[in-house]
């Protein structure tokens, strides 16, 4: 079994929690002289690893390597392809109205936009659609390509990526989901799945049970 490599800050967070448990994320941030947002990805990683446990309105507790359950070690080696979900896709020629209907019918947080050849060319979120709606105009005549975030300004993950690394990217980018892609010979990306906060939350609850 390989040894988990923590960053210096993650080691410092573990020490602080061990010495001051239970302790809130805000208090940890104060002791490290950083913002709560700056610690978010580290706390996610440490909790997913099982080094820390968190209880709402109480704070973080230290568990430690010696008390980790086997499920957490399995999680460490898990790949995105093991847990990815089905992506919601639309084509860049579709109207904003059509994409709004798709997103709400599927109860999705975003849609991944494909070009005429079926490659990823953009992403549109509920927030983007709300802004477009407030802006006025006939939404049935505005192509979704006009308001989407375009490649290469999109974070993606590969099927082979480790779930831990993908989770860190998800948290750092402060988005609800990322497209899981498979690169073609021309360097463009095919969307083969989605990696989301909801998927991670469900997995974490399964491990806790």
UniProtKB/TrEMBL annotation:
Instruction: Tell me the ranges covered by the CBS domain, including all copies.
Output: 78-139, 148-209
Give one Pfam family, short name only: HTH_11
What protein name applies here?
Answer: Transcriptional repressor CcpN
Instruction: For this UniProt record, give its keywords in alphabetical order, as a comma-separated list.
Output: CBS domain
């Amino acid at each position: 079994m390989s040894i988990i490599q923590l960053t210096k800050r993650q080691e410092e967070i573990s020490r602080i929690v061990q010495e001051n448990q239970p302790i809130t994320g805000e208090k940890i941030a104060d002791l490290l002289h950083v913002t709560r947002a700056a610690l978010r990805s580290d706390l996610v990683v440490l909790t997913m690893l099982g080094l820390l446990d968190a209880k709402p309105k109480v704070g973080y507790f230290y568990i430690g390597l010696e008390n980790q359950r086997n499920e957490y070690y399995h999680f460490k080696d898990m790949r995105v392809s093991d847990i990815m979900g089905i992506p919601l896709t639309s084509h860049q020629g579709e109207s904003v109205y059509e994409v709004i209907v798709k997103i709400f019918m599927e109860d999705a947080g975003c849609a991944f936009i494909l070009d005429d050849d079926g490659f990823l060319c953009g992403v549109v979120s509920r927030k983007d659609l709300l802004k477009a709606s407030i802006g006025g105009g006939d939404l049935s005549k505005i192509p979704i390509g006009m308001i989407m975030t375009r490649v290469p300004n999109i974070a993606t993950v590969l099927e082979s990526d480790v779930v831990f690394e993908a989770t860190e990217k998800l948290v750092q980018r402060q988005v609800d989901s990322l497209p899981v892609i498979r690169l073609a010979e021309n360097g463009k990306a095919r969307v083969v799945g989605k990696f989301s906060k909801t998927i991670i939350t469900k997995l974490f609850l399964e491990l806790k049970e």
